[in-house]
Amino acid sequence: MTKILPVIMCGGSGTRVWPESRETLPKQFIPLIGERSTFQTTMQMLDDPAFERPIVISSVDYRFLIADQLREIGAQADIVLEPMRRDSGPAVAVAAGLAARRSPGTVVVVLAADHVVRDQPGLVDLCKKAAEAAKEGYIVTLGVKPDAPATGYGYLRPGAQIHEGGEVLKLEAFVEKPDRATAQSYLDQGYFWNSGNFIFRADVMQAEIAKYEPTIASAAEGAIDAAKMDLGFLVLDEASFQLAPKKSIDYAVMEKTTQAALIPADIGWSDVGSWRAVWELSKRDQHGNSVRGHGVVMDATNVHVRSDETLTTVVGVSDVIVVTTQDAVLVLHHDHGDKVKQLVQQLQRENRREAGEHKRIFRPWGYYQSIDSGARYQVKRIVVKPGERLSLQMHFHRAEHWIVVRGTAEVDCDDLTKLVHENESIYLPMGCKHRLTNPGKIDLELVEVQTGSYLGEDDIVRFQDAYNRG
Amino acid sequence: MTKILPVIMCGGSGTRVWPESRETLPKQFIPLIGERSTFQTTMQMLDDPAFERPIVISSVDYRFLIADQLREIGAQADIVLEPMRRDSGPAVAVAAGLAARRSPGTVVVVLAADHVVRDQPGLVDLCKKAAEAAKEGYIVTLGVKPDAPATGYGYLRPGAQIHEGGEVLKLEAFVEKPDRATAQSYLDQGYFWNSGNFIFRADVMQAEIAKYEPTIASAAEGAIDAAKMDLGFLVLDEASFQLAPKKSIDYAVMEKTTQAALIPADIGWSDVGSWRAVWELSKRDQHGNSVRGHGVVMDATNVHVRSDETLTTVVGVSDVIVVTTQDAVLVLHHDHGDKVKQLVQQLQRENRREAGEHKRIFRPWGYYQSIDSGARYQVKRIVVKPGERLSLQMHFHRAEHWIVVRGTAEVDCDDLTKLVHENESIYLPMGCKHRLTNPGKIDLELVEVQTGSYLGEDDIVRFQDAYNRG
Questions:
Q1: What is the model's pLDDT at position B1?
Q2: CATH, residue B148
Q3: Total domains, chain A
Q4: Residue B470 lies inside a defined structural domain of this protein
Q5: Which of B354, B351, B397 is closest to B377 using CA atoms?
Q6: A182: domain range?
Q7: In chain B, which among 375-434 make CB contacts under 8 A with chain A?
Q8: Domain for residue A454, yes or no?
Q9: Residue B215, CA distances (Å) to B99, B212, B443, B451 in order
Q10: Do B247 and B349 fall within a single domain?
Q11: A372/B372 CB distance under 8 A
């Protein structure tokens, strides 16, 4: 049996489940449900002899996050980076182009990284069945039986079986997000939801894109041809890729192609497109309440509380989601889930950092997080992964005290190099050229106390950087 | 004109407006409305030639808080400390006893420290008028015209004017908190709310307490007679005071006495007895929304958001209070305000620190606050007031790094004494005998990084303490 090449689309920014999901650490990378991110559970599902080593397509911003998350679960993948966001059409074109370079007949399954599928073996089985139809030239979609006239999904109108007695049906029509009345009529007529997963032969998809969206096709080809390897990532060529219009694969191909098929998928699928969906996927008590982390609910029903650290209490308010993060709280009525996106846009207009950035800032070498600040000082927690190193740098306006609380630091300060161990500290005067390395085998954790009259992140002169940052 | 002696009752624990108000820093000491605490605004109101230097009666736990808050507004008072909580009856007995020792005819006004009065000059005027009646032997209450059949207040049934054409009325009946139907009938009959402020002659109140509650009378007298001055506070004698039963002055005297009078008070009074009351006292926009601090309200009405630091957002949820503090969030429906007390009791049963303690812990010398912690470390912000000094102490299980970020520290470490200036640090090894002093004229702020295998507050051996703590 020829193997299927999985391509995971990992570039979304997930504002609908703000404040846990933000531009700098979106939905697909956080454990919204369970202990792992949906990206990780998707990757784990693909650990099956039916699949080749997956390709992950994402934004250049998420490269180290992806590498980290793969490392955490011991999974491997080829990581392809888009220099800018261009929606799913160009991404699928790249997937098809990369697959075709292996062999034009390669069967590809495109999966979203931010969906939950309860019956993962079921999905694997469906992929195998869909692959047979894909080999015959069909572009196969997975159709989910709707349980409500949702207006947030595309709908699929099923036709006859492509083979008598088989599970795969002709797809008669692929229609984009309807209004509520239309959605209800679709439900009555037995339409399916488009789950956003596709199975196709590389050459078939390439031909369809070339036919309906030649600009996307040529931009994707150019971006692959001139792509460059950088620190193990394949970075698509910016000049070519940017020529691709922003268009979803639904609009670009699926609504137009005559080669589409559909396989009904009863696999407990959710695109986790709102906080309400998260609540529905969570374990609830007899009052419909569900608490993740430190929460107390009193005299209320259908409440979902999420808080990692801060005690979060709800009294007498039903049908709400309450999400508490380190720097933002959201109190949201179940029926207003579609307004979270608007809220985030409003916060962006007001230039609030919380709109897009978490308090914990991930870097290729680990992360840092501001834990306190005053008039002339700031305190940060800094964690450096084993073997990693920050850039050689200098600050004009601040001095730094580093106190190592776990692991060992190798500190360069002007011409000196010193090992600093747990419970030791070092002082870096203003203007010194310094660098922090974790030479050890465990995480290095340190507390940094900055003092000075200006403490902005932009007071940094970088002399050398292991991660090719400016 | 003889002056009135104001006595401010300052001992409540204010759980109804948790999480801002907690046992360690209750309602009367926090700026619930405006920039000052209600204790401070009450004190500021008493800065009037009609009044003597006030007496503040409170729990021993709040002595340094009271001193600080007085210092902050430049006010002066005699501070009397109850060694344990005994409700308002014994406190009023002490007030009367202290006043009678000056002169039996002293007119006393007893004021609650946690009420809001919009028309403060109006209250001062009423006190003066009530004082005239008090001189004649009346115990005068301030009656507030009810605007709803509230069940949380005592009610006052007014009688005839004590002097023809005067404002002071005979008080026909003083009845405790009724049920809703009874409250409505009281409203219909023109009853007033008891605002909890009383004006009386010291000897009159003493006689009434002696008549109806002789145990309270003798306990109060004994507690005054054996009281001791400690660091400028008058501490009531524990052995005597504990003999007083816990009883409010309403039950102890007001329901029984035949000498009560009433003066109608239209002074914008609120006892701020619930979050709803706080919302009602706050400035609201045309949707009834009111935001204090960092909040955003979208598609909702009658929302009150309070958050000093954390961005707090409400979408599509109306008629709620959302309070975000550093370590606790409350989402409360307007109609469930009376359940906050229950919530706090539940949190106490679960031994949650947040039930009664703020993240910022006030001490006689200043405050500290945990800002981060990990497996074997904790980071604190410590602020020491000018001239103050922590105890000479030692820890068995932790070492400490101190980084001064503002002001100057004088540090004793075993046999050495050293000045540590801004942007300097010092290391205190495990087991060393150390002491921190602020010898300067401005606040000393430092960041403390503790490392060790046990970081509990109880790992402390105190050798000497300037504040007579154990």
A1: 61
A2: 3.90.550.10
A3: 3
A4: no
A5: B397
A6: 4-270
A7: 375-377, 379, 381, 399, 401, 403, 405-406, 422-423, 425, 427
A8: yes
A9: 19, 9, 47, 53
A10: no
A11: yes
Contact B336 A316 (CB under 8 A): yes
- Residue A442 — pLDDT band, cuts 50, 70, 90? very high
Question: What is the CA angle B389-B395-B401, rounded to 5?
Answer: 70
Same domain, A237 and A288: no
Q: Is residue B469 part of a domain?
A: no
Q: Which residues contact B273 (CB under 8 A, 6 or more apart)?
A: B16, B152
Q: DSSP class of residue A234?
A: E
Same domain, B138 and B244: yes
B449 chain-A contacts, CB cut-off 8 A: 403, 405, 425, 447
Q: How far is B373 from chain A (nearest CA, A)?
A: 10
Residue A470 located in a structural domain? no
Does A328 lie at the interface with B, CB-CB under 8 angstroms?
Answer: yes
What would the DSSP string read from start to end of B275-310?
Answer: HHHHHHHS---TTS-EEEEEEEEES-SS-EEEEEEE
Final residue of a structural domain among A270, A291, A315:
A270
Helix (H) or strand (E) holding A208: helix A202-212
Max CA pair span of chain A: 78
Structure tokens at B237: 């004698």
Instruction: Tell me whether residues B331 and A339 touch, CB distance under 8 A.
Output: no
CB-based contact, B323 to chain A, within 8 Å = no
| CB < 8 Å from A in window 260-319 of B | 296, 298-299, 307, 310-317
* A364 shares a domain with A345: no
Distance from CA of B21 to the nearest CA of A (A): 15
For A201, which DSSP code?
E
In this complex, is the C-beta atom of B347 within 8 Å of any C-beta atom belonging to chain A? Answer: yes
| Domain termination residue (choose one: B338, B355, B372) | B355
Helix (H, G, I), strand (E, B) or coil at B253: helix
The per-residue pLDDT for A269 is: 93
Q: With a cut of 90, say whether residue B464 has pLDDT above it.
A: no
| Nearest CB to B317 within list A320, A372, A375 | A320
Which residue of chain B has the CA closest to A335? B316
In this structure, what token pair is assigned to residue B468? 């007579």
With a cut of 60, say whether residue A292 has pLDDT above it: yes
pLDDT over threshold 90, residue B13: no
User: What SS3 state is found at A183?
Assistant: helix
Q: How far is B145 from chain A (nearest CA, A)?
A: 29
ipTM for the predicted complex: 0.91
Q: Which of A310, A316, A379 sits opposite B327 (nearest CB)?
A: A310
Burial A45-69 (b: 16+ CB within 10 A, else e): bbeeebbbebbbbbbbebbbbbbbb
Please check whether residues B247 and B339 belong to one and the same domain: no
Give me the residue from B298, B322, B405 closest to A343, CB to CB. B298
Residues B233 and B181 in one domain: yes
**Which positions in chain A touch B408 (Cβ < 8 Å)?**
none
**Given the structure tokens 């026909």, which residue do they identify?**
B172
Determine whether the interchain pair A372/B352 forms a contact, defined as Cβ–Cβ distance below 8 Å.
Answer: no
At B70-100, the pLDDT tens digits run 999 999 999 999 999 999 999 999 999 999 9
